[in-house]
Amino acid sequence: MKIIETALPGVLILEPQVFGDARGFFVETFR
């Protein structure tokens, strides 16, 4: 998961990592 800080104090953007192959995509959001 990628954590991006913003200009607002205490506000973060959490960007999950997406795994893809020929069958489709998988996103692990629980970690």
From TrEMBL:
Reactions mediated catalytically: dTDP-4-dehydro-6-deoxy-alpha-D-glucose = dTDP-4-dehydro-beta-L-rhamnose
Broadest EC class assigned to this enzyme: isomerase
E.C. code: 5.1.3.13
Entry protein name: dTDP-4-dehydrorhamnose 3,5-epimerase
InterPro entries associated with the record: RmlC-like (IPR000888), RmlC-like_jellyroll (IPR014710), RmlC_Cupin_sf (IPR011051)
Protein role: Catalyzes the epimerization of the C3' and C5'positions of dTDP-6-deoxy-D-xylo-4-hexulose, forming dTDP-6-deoxy-L-lyxo-4-hexulose.
Domain of life per record: Bacteria
Pfam families: dTDP_sugar_isom
